[in-house]
Structure formats: C-alpha cells, structure tokens
Amino acid sequence: MLRLPPFLYLQPKTLRDALRMKQDAGPNGMYVAGGTDLYPNMKRRHQEPKTVISLAEIHALRRVTGGTKGSALSVGAGVTLTELKRHRKIRDRYPVISRTAELISTPILQNMGTLGGNLCLDTRCNYYNQSYEWRKAIHFCMKKDGDICWVAPSSPRCWAICSSDLAPVAVAIGAELTLAGPDAERVLPSQRFFHDDGITYLTKHPDEILTDVRLPAANAWDAVYWKLRRRDAFDFPVLGVAAYVHWDGSRVADARIVLGAVASYPFEIAEAAEAVVGTELEDDAIRAAADAAFKPSKPMDNADFGLAWRKHMTREYVKGALEELRKRR
Amino acid sequence: MGGGDRRQGGPTRVIGTPQRKVDAAAKVTGETLFSDDLVLPRMLYARILRSTQPHARIAHIDASAAEAIEGVKAVLTGEALPTAFGILPVSQDEHTLAVHKVRFIGDPVAAVAAVTEEIATEAIDAIQVEYEPLEPITSAEEATEKPDPRIHDYGPAGNFHKLIDLEFGDVDQGFGEAGLVREDFFFYEGSTHLPMEQHAAVASWSPDEKLTLWSSTQTPHYVHRALAKVLGLLAAHIRVVACPNGGGFGGKSDPFSHEIVVAKLAMMTGRPVKITLTREEVFYCHRGRHPTLMWVKTGVARDGSIKGMHFRTLLDGGAYGSYGVASTYYTGALQTVTYHVERYKFQGARVFTNKAPCGPKRGHGTPQPRFALEIHIDKIAEDLGIDPAELRLKHLVPAESLTANYLSVGSMGLGECIRRVTDGARWKERFRKLPLGRGVGLACSSYITGAGLAIYWNDMPHSGVQLKCDRGGGVTVFCGSTDIGQGSDSVLAYVVAEILGIEPLDLRIVTADTDLTPVDLGSYSSRVTLMTGNAAIQAAERARTILAQHAAKALEVPVDRLVFADRRVFDAEDPDNGMSFAEAVVRAEAAHGTVGTVGSYTPPNSAGRYRGAGVGPSPAYSYSAAVAEAEVDPATGIVRIPKIWIAHDVGRCINPVNVMGQVEGSVYMGLGEAVMEEMAYRSNRSVVHKMPSLLEYKSPTTLEMCDVVTYLVEDPDPAGPFGAKEVGQGPLLPIPPAIANAVYDAVGVRVDEVPLTPEKVLKALKRKAAGQEPRVGPTKFPEIPWPEPIRVPPPWEGGDGRAVSATPVTASVPEERQH
Amino acid sequence: MANRRPNPRVEAHIGFVVNGEPTEVSFAPHKTLLEVLREDLDLTGTKHGCELGECGTCTVLLDGQPVLSCLVLGIACEGRRIRTVEGMREGPHLHPLQDAFAELGAAQCGYCTPGLLLTAEALLDENSSPSRDEIKNALSGNLCRCTGYIKIYEAVELAAARMRGEDARPTAETIYGRR
What we know:
The structure holds 3 protein chains of 3 kinds. Chain A is an alpha+beta fold. Helix content of chain A is 32%, strand content 20%. Chain A has 13 helices and 12 strands. Chain A has a 5-stranded antiparallel beta sheet. Chain A has a 4-stranded antiparallel beta sheet with strand order 9-10-11-12. In chain A, strands 1-3-2 form a 3-stranded parallel beta sheet, covered by helices on one side. In chain A, a hairpin with a 4-residue loop joins β6 (176-180) and β7 (185-189). Chain A is globular and about 60 Å long. Chain B is an alpha+beta fold. In chain B, 26% of the residues lie in helices and 24% in strands. Chain B is built from 19 helices and 34 strands. In chain B, a hairpin with a 6-residue loop joins β26 (621-632) and β27. The longest helix of chain B is centred in the middle third of the chain and has 28 residues, at 528-555. Chain C is α+β, with helices and mostly antiparallel strands. Chain C is built from 6 helices and 5 strands. Chain C has helices at residues 33-40, 96-104, 113-126, 132-138, 150-163, 172-176, and strands spanning 12-18, 21-27, 59-62, 65-68, 81-83. Chain C has a 5-stranded mixed beta sheet, with helices on both faces. In chain C, α2 (96-104) packs across α5. At the B-C interface, α1, α3, α17 and β30 of B face α2, α3, α4, α5 and α6 of C.
C-alpha cells in the first residue's frame, strides 16, 4: 500500500504557535489543513516536507463572522467544504459558495477538505500527479525533480493548471483574503493571491497562513459557477466558469468572468465581462461574452479530455452560466 | 456426468428462490479475510521494482545498495528464476522478473523482501538498473508495419503473435446472392477490470520445505501449476489458497509475477512474505480488454437474412501473450450464435506492443466484435428499411441447432429477450420518433457458459466436488472453485441443499484450496455455476442415494417414495413417517461407513474438429437484449444514459436476487466501457500509461450509473444445473452497442468506436453540419499477411466439422485450447 | 534515502474511542488512520483501494462523519470517536443496513462494502427517509465495481424503512426483475 514518508507532525492550537513552528521548520515545513491534497502528494513524493504543521486544531480558523446588515461575511479558512455547503447564512446569501463546495470531489472528501485548502490547492498536471516511478519513466518534469515541462517542452515555465473550484469563484465575486504572517497580517483581493505559474502559483509566502475569506456583502450581485468534468463526483474541473454580475435594476452594472482549469491561475477575461456590462444579458450580449471568453481560453494537454473540446466548452459554459444568471435575476 | 433430471426445470424449494449468500454475513461485517488482511508471525513485506523503459535490454543490475539497507532480508532478480511461464501452453513468454529484457513500463525487474513495506520501498529505489533502450512499438498498426525490433522471438512473424484464418463456406458466393452488401469499420478501445481490491499475495515456506501461497487469484489451479514449473518444486509440495477476491472480472486469472516473487522470497528467507500491489501496479498487471480494430462485410437478402459475413479483427495484445490466443479466437467465435449466418469467414490477428499485457476481461474477446456486429446490423436494418428489432427477431438462430462454425446452441431465449425489452422501452412508439437529442437503441448478444476445453490439454473433469455428511447432520462441500464475489460458494450450497432437503446455511463450503479441494479450473469463462453445479448435483445425488437406501429400510418404504425436505427424510405418502436428516446420516454411517461422495463434470465434446475449434464451444449459451435510452446535447456532444432495459436468458435462476446483481453489475461495466473508460498511453512519452489511478481512470460513480430495468428470461437449458446458464458476463455485451445505436437515434451521428466521448460525438455532429459523413471511427484496416485459410464447410453444406483445406489435418484434437 | 526510513523508536501514543471502546495505541507517527486500524488494532474490516483518496473504500466514521482513513493521520485522532464496520453490529445482531445488504446481495465481492455501509449509516443518521437521489449523492464518493450500485440503493432504502419501524420487504422487481 502507498504510505506516507516519515515526517514530524505538529498540531498547534493557536495561529501564533503555528507561525512560529513554521519559521522553526524553515523551507522543509508545510502547513496542512484537511490533508486531502497534501497527503496524496506526499505519498507520491511531489511534496516532501519534513515537518507538517496542522491547522486543524486552530479554532480561530473555523469561525464564520459578520454578514449582518449588508456587511461582508468572513469565513475562516479552516471551515470544511461540508460546513460551507450546509451553513445557513452561506447557503442563503452566498449560494454560489455552497453550491461550488458541493461540486468539489465527493461528499466524504468534503468532510475533510477546507475552504483554505481548496484555494491553496496545488496546481495539477497529468505529468505531475503521478507516482515517483511513473515520473521517473518520463525523466520527471520541472515542477518536481526534472527540468522540462512536458506539456510545452519548449517553454521555460510550468503549465500545471489551477484545479481549485473555489478559486475562480473567489476572484469572480471579489472575495478578499486575509493572510497572517509571522510579523503582520495583510488583506489581498483574491486575484492578487494567485499567480500565473504552475510552480509558484500563489503569491502567499510559504510561512503565511490564509486565515479568512471575506465574502463581499450580499446585495445586488449574483454569481454562478459551472464545472466541467467527466464524472459528477471525484473529478477535478477540466474547465470552471465563474460568472459574476452586479445588477442595476435589470441591467448589468458590473461583471466578472473567470475561468478555472485553463491556466495556472484563475483566468479572468475582462473582454467577456465588458461584453455584458450595460446589457440586460440579452442573447446577443451573452453570445458576445461567450465568444470573448472562447478566444483566449487555451487549455493545455494536461488534464482529462482533449484540448479542442475543452476550448469549445468554454463558449458553451460561459453561455450557460450567463443564461443561468439571467434566469435568476 | 451427474444431474439427470436436475438439469431441467421442476418444483424446487431452494433453487429459484431468493437466498442470502453463504458469505453474506462475513462480507457485511468485514470479517471476510482478503489476501491483504492476512498477517503471519515474522512476516516480511515485498515490493517489486518495475521497468521505467517501454522496451530495452537490461545491461546491468546493481542491487548492492539495496542489500546493504538494514532490514532488507532478500533481493531477487530475474536470473534466479529463468523458467518462463504463462497462462496458455502456447504462450509461455513471461518471466517472474525480467531476464535480459523489459517489454513495457511496469514490467517486473527486481524484488525485495524487508521487515517493513517502507524499507522494501526504499530498497527497490536503491537498485540501479542500466537499460539499453530499444525502439518501442506503440500501437497495433505500428506492430503490423514494423517486424523489428521484435518484442518476442516467437509468433508467426515480426511482432505478430497470432494469425487466424477460418472459412465456413464461400462468403463471396454469399455476397453474390445478397441483395445488400455492407462494409463497416469499428474500433473498441482497451479498458481494465479495476477490481476494488488491489492484488495481494502471502507465501509461507515451512521447515519441511512445503510452500503455501494465499493469493487474490481467480485461478488457483493454474497458479499451482505455474509455481511448480517456475520454482522447480513438486506440485505435491505446493498449496495454493485463493482468498475471496475483492473483485476480479478476469483481471486475476493469470498466474502473476508477484505470486511467484513472494513464494521465492519466502523460500530464500524462510519467513512468510506478503506483497500488496499499489493501484498503479494493478494497472500494469492489466490483462484487460484488447484494443481491437475491426472490419466487417456482410451480405444480406432483402429480408435481412445473412448470406455471408466476413469479419476481421486486429488486437493490440500488449507486451505478453497471456490469454491472447484465445482472446483472438473469441473475437471471431460468437458472431454466429445470435442470428443465422449462412457462410462465415473470420480473420484475426494479435500483435505485441510495448504496453501492459491484455487478456480476458468480462466477456473475453467478445464485447469488441459484438459492438461492431450490433451497430452493423442496425445500419443494415436502416439500409433495408426494416425495424432493427424485427430484423433480429426474424433471423434468430434456432434452439438446438448447429452454427456455421459448429457451435451447438441449446436453449435460446433471445427472441423472448428482445420482446421483453422492446415492450418495456415502448420501442415501437419511440424508435426514430423521439425529438432531437433523445434516442433509443437496441442490441443483443450471447455468451458462453463455460469453455468447452481446459487451458492445457487433459482428459480430466473441469470441476470436482467432494461431499461429506457428518453424524450431526452437517454437510461439508469441498470444491476448487473460487468466489470472486459472483457467489460461486453459495451456488454449491443451494444445489446441495436442494437435493438433500436441508437449508443452504446448514452447509459448510470449503473452496479454492489445492490441498483440500478437488480441482475446479477457476472462475473464468462463466463456467462455475454450470460446471461446479453439475458436479455438486452428482455428488449430492450420490449421497442422497446412500442416505435414502438406509432410511427407506428403517422407515419400511420404497426408496423412490422418500422425500428429502425441511431437514427431514420422509415418506411422500405419509409425511409423518420420517426421520431427521441427521438421523438418516447416522443410520447410513452405521450401515455403510463414512458417508462421503464425489461428483465431477466434463463438458461435452465439440462438434467442430478443425484447428481452432477449441474456442467457442460451450455446454450452453446465454442470451441478452438491451435497449438503451440516450440524451445527447447537440451543442456539447455530452451523452447521458438515463435508463437501460435489459433482458437476460439465464436458463434458470439458481438464486434470482444474485442473478439480478450480476445483470446490473454487467450493465454498469458495459456503461463504463461505452462512455468513459479507457486504457490510454502516451505514445510520445515513453509509452507510459496516461493515467494509472482511480482518479483518472474513469469508473462511473453512482451519479453516472443509469437506472436499470431487468427482465430475467428463464428458458432452461438441458446442459445446465436445474437448467441454469451463465449471467456474469453476457449482460455486459449488448450495452456499448445499444448506447451507440441510441446516440445515433438521438442525433443522427455514428460513433463507431468506444468510448463514445463527448469529443467524438461533437466531432461527428460538426461533420454532419458540414455535410460530411456524420460519423467518427476508423476508416481502414491494415494489410495483414493472413495465413492460408482453414476451410470448413458449414453443416448445411454437408460438412462434418473437419477442415477440407489443402493443408492436411494431422491432429485429431484441436491444437488451440481455449480458456 | 536513509532519512525516509521510519525510526521505529519514535512512536506516537494516542487514546481514542474505537467502536465505542476507549483504546490506546502506539504507532509510527506518520501512519494513517487506515494503517493504524488495520495494522496496529487488527481491524482489517476497513479496506483500501488506492490510498490516495480516489475511491472511498477506506471510509470510516470520525466523530460520526465519513472520512477517508487513508488521508487522516492516526496521530490526529487523539480523543476522537472512530467507527469501523466491526462496530456496526449490535451485539450478535446485524445492523439493519448490514442485514439489508446481505439480504439483497448488495455485497458482491464485499470489498467496497464496509466503506459503503458506513457512508450509508451516516446518511441515515441525518436523514431517515432519503430519496433515491439523496442516496446517490451521499454514496457518490464510494466506488463499487461489482453491483452497478442498484442493489446498494435498494438495500439502503430497505434498511431505512425498517429503521423507521416499518415492516418493509424488498419488492418483487428487486428480487425477480420486472415480470
């Protein structure tokens, strides 16, 4: 059976202890929340921390606060996906969040995986998410143990893809992320949390802990998330479409359309949003947005399904997501 | 042969009624011990180092660093076990660990036994292997074109493993007589069994130099033979115990490297050794569905009767022989048993490639041609303007008949199956009448109930049963059969309980242990219920005869008036005049001595006497028909299958609830193959398996599984125990073509290959929109150096089952064995 | 290389409640709950199919919730409640789910069965009359290759009805197919 390599496991009760432990552990230390991403990666030797610092016992990370009278709702990064999909306030005011949580992997895994863990999910690639022996057979890749990207062998960078479902949603709705560091706390808009590189895919410093996700006050905006995958359980997205609109009456005052699983980060397509701003999401406007999203959507050959079809589906899913928003108006 | 009137329907108490399986309680409480659950004192753990090269010579192996690791107790490499093995006598082409050469990524190279699995893993990492790469052969087409480098040094030529050319009548004459001649190409992608249990084995070497192997194998008898051969031990000194299999589906039917590895490591260290394969290694064991390219040409009269059919298959065998010769024959064997085929020609080729070896997966070699044939028939029906259900019904093979290739059909319930599913699905109202995006498709099939021949030539029974009656009224049944979840242990209990008038759970069933149980060939080819069932009937009837003789004396009634029921033996005319079953045993034992009997079963001889006639004959053929409903989104190509209606002619249900389970499970596996499962390789990157994981190999979850409406058709077969035929494999066969036909009905495009992915459907839709042929699928079949055909006139042309070709037939027994 | 080797002298020692019984156990600290249950507590009823969280076979209940024991560290279970298939039986009696699985042949090879039983038990704890769709959703993280899931749904429905106190029996169609 596949087993974990030996490592030192620490289970701090406070953020401060966790930060200190990470500093002590240095680059060989890693945080773990639900473990559903890190432990498989450790078993296949993608990630080889010598010290693993669990965030599971830090109660501060599991709080849901605010959200009254038009204020933002602050959701602790340690809230599990099951809690996200069941929490009354989140379900009522942020259905896009609870619905997206419900689409992640399986109900069993949702009991383990966390909001923060999904946002920090390691980028994925068919050449990377393999055992050590398998990767040895292809002489490894630059994300781990090698020096080439097999998806784009002439490219100097890694093209592993952002496979988080909540990441494109967070960017689309303009969630803000709170990071606690050893010295200070900082708040980032979601889009600045992610970085277009398969290896350095987060701007978060390794020592920092994602503590809270602030969901903007629920008012005149609405958002939906469409997830494409082979099976309706287990599978990571091969395409995610998060669509956000701010209504001004029946008109779209503001919009954001963000694609998941087509780049190393949640890929915002401003042209697609522009195509619907000022419209009532008429068929023409939706078609224009879908076309605008289709053009720059460039899936790579590193996930399930073929590239051409995944690209084709960008148009269909953007269209579907916007039509759903129109219907919900 | 036992059975007599038990082969036919008649009033029964146990047979035909829903029963719990004898192992049900153990399975729902977690008490069943699978191989990996076994722990022995001082047990070591083994790991196998596998090739990272698809095709290479091994220049050098340096295991010194591994040997130096504390906790490592033995390191094993190929030269220690130079004897080759393989499931078929004609394909002894595997080594326990590579000798000089590796043939696919995952080929076993070296092995280690250590005190923990972690240390064993560390040790295999420390073994240095120097490879001299050879050019890999990445596809079947490439193998037909490139004789060099040869993957194996046997076979007809180059990288061909097997070439078959069989001719039953002059098909060209048939095409000449036909009103319509149609040719089609099809491709069936490879898929794997994916049992939830990863293969595991434990070996123990006793101080008196006897070996015991516990393994998750479907074929302990064949593993027993392979161990004796490779290890050079007396078979009498080897005991193989097949643990309950956590799923098999054909994937645990070969003797495997890891089984021999732990045996050898136990012999080297004097300690028990266990190995549990990782999921990735299970993908490398494979032996799954052969990717198969097919071409079929059929000539039909205007009424749809088949005048001639010519069928070609090209199988991508992967790196080793496995069951491949039999698989190749099977891709041509059963085309004739559903609809009457007047003249039939089959050409089959299997090639070696540098991929995990293919072998027998549920339906062994027949789902591929069945997919082709059932779509081909659908197209022919459309060409002729005949409803495809009516066309099939009009030309069914009659019961109790001989086919063009000399297969003896017994009971034949396909007509009833077609009627049930078409009625259930409201076929007449819906076929070609549903709105765009929704469709229904029909397909039929047939499968063997056990192979007519064993894997190696012998005159012995295929299945044996011993039965022992205890003074307390207990009955123990011993049989070599292996329960892989299909319920074979329970079948023994139901059959014996029926005959002896006791309850199934009164019995003790001992199976799959070469020391304790008489040989049964294994859980493959859907043979177990029929063969062990008949052997058990014989043993039970012999016991009943002994018990009845002495009970009749005591009760002072004629023997033929005795009834065995309700744990009693009594006078049919005066039920109060009787005794308990236990008392009957006591009286018999007192008068007769220990009450123990045996039974065995040997299938009837095949009518075909030509070379290659060994594959296809069976004591009985099951039949299935299915209607699939498809929803296809024309904008995306995404296919949803909400519902499947399936009817299966099982002859007679031994236990209907378990028959239902086999049908539903077969539909599931057929659905997976039809729409998403795929053994895919990266031919541009070292021929590495694209996705050897449970995440990326797409096995349908509850959310993909369709609703299933099942009809059990009971047309008792004279060859089956109480009339029973197989159900474990046949119901898979009609699912992929029914789905493909339903997709065509929904959106008017043909996807002539599996899996029917949304990409392919969309591509076909785009071609349709562009005015091109609305189809995705292969368009050519490579040149193959077919051998001189073996010509056998069909029965209705005066044939006697022998070949009449110029090549003299010397052997009186068919040379090719089937599995 | 050498630093990957577990040091047998470093052992974690925890106390937790396994199937209702307070239990103490020592093990190498990097072991998963799956390994601790199977290898250190001899509870081999919990099976495994991938050890990567991709099949659901190793599901156990942790404080009443189904989790994948292959991705939970044993050391993280200090003080918590674990339920495995061995704990489902009530004295000598099968749990209604176990009984219904046995009755309907919902356990074929039986390998995915322990995980499915526990997931189903957690479902019925929360929802005593789940619809077919709710059952499908709840069980969507447990792969089964034998049954096609149908007999499993029927067994969960049968057990649910009996647990609600109904005198439920399987339908004729479940057992004999549609006539």
